[in-house]
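Appendix B.2, paired examples.
Example (i):
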Amino acid sequence: MNINSKNITETLETNLSQQIYNKKTNILNGQIDTKLNIFYKISNNLRYTKNNTAEKYLLTNGEKKFKRLITKFRISDHLLHIERGRYTKPLKKSRSDRTCYFCPDKIDDEMHAILYCPAIAQQRNILLNLFNKSFNNFINLDDLSKLKLILNPHSTHLCIQVGNFLEQINE
């Protein structure tokens, strides 16, 4: 019996890639609430990552504290309830119970905080106006595309503005 190790390796890689893709898709679609925090954080960052190169905001002259804060939001290392509720004692809160202080019927996640929460509407409008000026058709993008652009500002000015905005959210 002749075993072709190349075919076996390719089959295993394909199966593993498909499993990872399926898990990532399920998490991004909110279909599962995983206990694997690291997998969730990696998959969350995959929302914003295009490839394996340094993201634009890291290459700007923006302040280090703002770059760090943007990175924290990209990997879900922030103070929103979606993360803090994972670590409540004695029992962690279910995803549906990790709601916004100001919007008790909304989950307090990155999407809600950055794009919708009325508590910071004035600051958000300033930020969104800057993005509207910087990107053609920004206003017509879907929410995930807007979030990707906001969390990967391409200029020093936008990096500083996004950092200031996220600082207000993360207080």
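Example (ii):
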Amino acid sequence: MSDKNKILNSSGPKKFSKYLIDNDLDINLVMLDTTARTAKDAAKSIGVDVGAIVKSLVFNYKENFTGKDNLVMALISGDKKCDTLALEQLLGDGGKLIRPDADFVKSRTGYSIGGVSPLGLPEETKIFVDTSLNRFDEIWAAAGHPYCVYKSTYLDLILHSRAIESNMISI
């Protein structure tokens, strides 16, 4: 089995592909020759502006009153940073946004850090998308592995991920 086959048959790309099939989505998983682990790496690998890369940032939002852990994702343009204080305010209740460890990310999303896709996440996941991604006709997001991506439009990203638009979550 080649490295390409090994990657495509690993759990992340398989989960991503199953989501596409289950939801009848005509999206192609693109296997890169070099890593897309960071926005800069992805932009270089694909040959696009770093702003056209969707950073999938995973957080644990710990509710203030119950202490319950909640999976939250911020989809941020590759040339921006996430404003975590603004994101916390959008979530309400005075809870705390925490950067989770790799085990939390994998157990909650089914993906490993560096390849977390905004598609195929649990229904209860709160996903917010940075409106600055709308500057680009095409954007690129992770598809389950650091070497796998997919091309989307801003509107399709919102539709397929069930994301909530926000112009406050990036700086």
